[in-house]
Amino acid sequence: MGGHFQSESVAGLNRNRWPLWIGIYIDGPKCEHDKNRIYKNGRGTYDKILKNLEILKSDYPDYFERNVSFNAVYNANSNLDNVINFFATLKTEFAPNLRVRFSFDPISKIECKDSKTEYSKKVDTIKDDYIKIKKTMSKQSNQESVYHILSSFLAPYFYPIKTRTYLKPSCINYTGVICKPGISKIFVDVYGNFHICEQIDNTFEIGNCLEGLCYDSVKEIYDDYKRAILWECQNCIARNFCTICFVPVGKNGKFKKNTICQKKRISFLNLLEEYYSIMEDLPIAFDELKLIEL
Questions:
Q1: Mean pLDDT, the chain, integer
Q2: How far apart are CA 196 and CA 251, in angstroms?
Q3: Who contacts 123 (Cβ-Cβ below 8 Å, separation ≥6)?
Q4: What phi and psi values does residue 206 have, to the nearest 5 degrees?
């Protein structure tokens, strides 16, 4: 939500104090957000979202404070300095109780061969900046906002290791499928067809607005995923921390394993090593780390 805003809908939610959250998808400042979030005519959505945010906060300040959260999607092409500074400023000047969850988009096309390397370096810098602030505990004025945003950015990396858990549905163990198609998530395209996710191709259809949800199709997708992907997961060292979902292994109506599993295992071992190296240096490093649920 953000580009499409109906004041009367929010008024009803606010009046009845329904515990429903409004999720605002905004990926940072205009130069970052409008790279990917555009209208059909190519015009960016940033200005419209900011205008709607100002109306929402002005007309429904209590609801804005209680029930509005943000989701920022970034990729290897993103300027993370711009993104971090944007949300730190947003927290300081506009939304003191800012709740933002950062999500990495692994399927965006890399703009140049150096983008991924530069991205990795910047993530390392963010980790270093977070630890420096945490060590000095100088969470004052502008530092407090920066610390909050850095913490939110790093949470998806380290929180699952800190808590020894990764949110997974009981119907699909091991992998990172946290949304349950046909149960907790349905993507509706412009033609009224239901799909399992907005990030996967349109060959995983599970119904439509006229005929409703096709439970046989949902079951078939679950069964196919289990047969194709989960057959060796039980013995994998990263099984409780895996983030693989339908998207990177699904194409043309089928699920197929590729090199992603080995990459995830290596990534997990590197992250585990990094986590404990940081903890040895600073045992309180992740005491306040929380994962924002949207």
A1: 83
A2: 12
A3: 80
A4: -130, 25
